[in-house]
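Lab notebook, design round three. We kept the backbone fixed and only want residue identities now. Task for the bench partner: fill in a sequence for the structure below.
Input structure tokens:
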């Protein structure tokens, strides 16, 4: 297993798009506006990217994002191997179980669980004058 810092958007996107529902936040950070404020770590096994972690550095405190669905072996190994590369203080958005690597006693402030939602069915057109699409004019 090999940990690398990734520099090619296409390589990162190809991994992230395999689970767009889970990786939406990370995919958004590939945009040029955010790109220069990101560090992308990957864990590779036999030349195949198995897990990716994003460290976003564009805010007061850096934010680490690392998500998985199902098997947590690769994300766990990745996080374990980059742990010493991370800043002393940072926010973290991690899938369940990964925070245990840092030790609960090291959590300064816990903000609770977050849930991701996804629309999996095509929306039906609703003909109701009381329902309207919101826009900037609604601010």
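Proposed sequence:
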């Amino acid at each position: 297993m090999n940990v690398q810092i990734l520099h090619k958007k296409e390589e990162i996107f190809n991994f992230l798009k395999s689970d767009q529902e889970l990786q939406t936040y990370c995919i958004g950070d590939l945009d040029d506006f955010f790109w220069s404020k990101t560090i992308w770590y990957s864990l590779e096994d036999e030349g195949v990217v198995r897990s990716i972690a994003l460290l976003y550095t564009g805010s007061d405190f850096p934010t680490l994002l690392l998500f998985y669905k199902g098997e947590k072996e690769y994300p766990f190994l990745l996080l374990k191997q980059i742990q010493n590369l991370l800043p002393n203080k940072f926010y973290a958005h991690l899938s369940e179980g990964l925070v245990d690597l840092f030790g609960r006693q090291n959590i300064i402030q816990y903000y609770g669980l977050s849930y991701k939602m996804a629309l999996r069915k095509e929306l039906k057109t609703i003909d109701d004058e009381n329902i309207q699409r919101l826009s900037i004019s609604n601010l």
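Keep this in mind before ordering anything: The longest helix spans residues 73-82.
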